[in-house]
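User: Hi! Is it possible to get a structure for several chains at once, not just one? Here's what I have:
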Amino acid sequence: MNARIRIALAMVLAGTLNVSIARADDVAALRAELDGLKSEYAARVQALEARIQQLEAQAAAVASAPPPPPPAPVASAGGAGTAFNPAMSVILAGTYAHLSQDPATYRIAGFIPSGPAVGPGDRSFNLGESELTLAANVDPYFYANLTASIAADDTVSVEEAYFRTTHLSNGFTIKGGRFFSGIGYLNDIHAHAWDFVDQPLAYQAFLGGQLAEDGLQAKWLAPTDIFLEVGLETGNGDRFPGTRRAENGPNGGAAFVHIGNDLGDSASWRAGVSFLNRDAERRSYADVEAGGAPVINAFTGTSRIWVVDTTFKWAPHGNPTEHLLKVQAEYLHRTEDGTLLFDSTGAALNGDYRSGQSGWYVQGVYGFRPRWRTGLRYDYLDAGSTRIGLVTDGGIAASNFPLLASASPRRISWMLDWSPSEFSRLRGQIAWDDARANARDHQLLLQYLYSIGAHGAHKF
Amino acid sequence: MLHRFARILAVALSLAAVAPAEAALKVLATTPDWAALATELGGERVNVYAATNPFQDVHRVEAKPSLVARARSADLVFATGAELEVGWLPVLIQESGNSHIQPGSPGYFEAAAQLRLLEVPSSVDRSMGDVHPQGNPHVQLDPHNIATVALALTTRLATLDPAGAAYYQARGTEFQAKWQQALVRWETRAAPLKGVTVVVIHKDQVYLCHWLGLREVAAIEPKPGVPPSAGYLAELVTKLTAAPPKLILRNAYNDPKAVEWLSGKINVPVVMLPFSVGGTPEAKDLIGLFDDTLNRLLGATK
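Assistant: Yes, the chains can be modeled jointly so their relative placement is included. Here is the combined structure:
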């Protein structure tokens, strides 16, 4: 178009100029310019012809493929990944428990009690926690997730409520709100995805079952073919082993490193080291003094926990339909350093306190035929060395701290589960629980787990 | 303590900095078929990693650490979509810390979103089994679908890597021409398969049956993803003895027990099909996948 206008203009100009001035060199210059335009035009036509040919060839290839691509094939152009907004899912769980010991007397001997989420739960039929999860992308920058838990006693609690960045690149993700801490392997796995009805004793003793953090988490994933993840967390620390403090600023923090990779087509592994540091202010617990009267003691100080975790999964060619094997083990070590207040509401004697305690579990789950799995778990805790200043300085007798008497609780659990589909699971578990110092608890637990709503995706 | 972590971080960061900047577009394909297609179309400008092997059931895949690591550095996730990978791909994308592959970004591509799916249910209820609300996601066994997906992928590759636009265009054209020829060859050869009655295991051969005109008379799974009970199998045997099908189809990733048992009962041969690139030694690429599928079907109907 442009070229044509230029040629026309040139011709008009050439005509008028030819009449009025008619200088030979001008004519020659114009002719040269015209020639230039002509050849430019020819080149363009040639290029266009070549493109038409190419397009025709392409069209022929496509057109002879009988069904032409449909114009608007599915509802959401982005595909399934953007289908539900927000994704909603509900987990229902419940147990039937037969326990040889009264669950009201359940204690993990040698360890300062970590809260109510310890032990096998009540006898007979029990409604478990009903979990409601809503999750969606907030906008192009954030994703948000709410998991509310409705307990059997009709109380509602916020299990997790967090935002997470989706738009940071270079492997960085920031999470904030309330979320399960990334330490260890089992800690951030929701109860319905556990392989046993309950948590390992080490998690119960050191983390009160599962550590949730009200705070912030930053994770960085290395740009390597091998999985290498580094995370840092901090928060208000109000969950065991910490307490809420009357101070500005965060209460301690956590750091973790996880690495993992494949071993051929059929196996993969993940291992990690985590560290948690928390301060506690008057973290109280109930005990019974030597005379038999109940007392409330309180710990103030610092709690440091190391976790080493390792997980290995195997399935023939990575296909777990017929057979699968999952082996995991975690070791936790805690030191607590501070003061212990004896009988806080009465005598209120204060002395220094220091403990170094550890525990581990190892478990294996084997899928022996489609939909059926069985698993074995061994728990071991070592109450280790506890120095109670009030006792060693001769203030009061050690028998005033019966819960802290040296012990090595252990437990063996065996489970069998059947999953009619991805969305339902029925499980039986028996355990020989020697968490109490002097009485073995024979436990039989039957459990159901149902999942409705959005299809969940599980972590490794 | 903390400086130990800082040191690890520093080492990792310096390793990352030292690593040569690779120009190739990194593609994380969820199946060997999409990996093969991405390689065909992207040639040397792409570096393709297949998240699964042909012996895996793409419904049931672990969000393995190695896959999270691959998602971290991927420029393009090439998925089937229609919720086939819903149990694991979202975890990879969430954990990746990679904004380029989030759904809705150019770096997230779903094959099913380019196609008209078969078996789109009019209502969805999980009592019907593992039904996918958007339709049957096992789209790769109809070569016409491959051609359509290839066209869209060529455009997407050019969007992600504009410097290679002409290269992708040329490879795309070449692939379509080659595919066209192959289609003519396959459809000529496959003519005798029209109307042949088959029994399948899972509803994942629908596109193959649709393309070849095979007639699916029964499925070994009573409902998608639901294994058969003894009662259902007995019923199936009665039904199929009365009207025996020509073939029983199984995929390379399926356990052969159920089909072999049925085959023995009703005296109908089992044909093992590659299902995915790499499912059999002959199915070493996409052309080989369809060549071998046809060879096996034709061989068994002789």
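The CA atoms of residues 110 and 406 of chain A lie 5 Å apart. Chain A has a mean pLDDT of 87.

User: Great, thank you!
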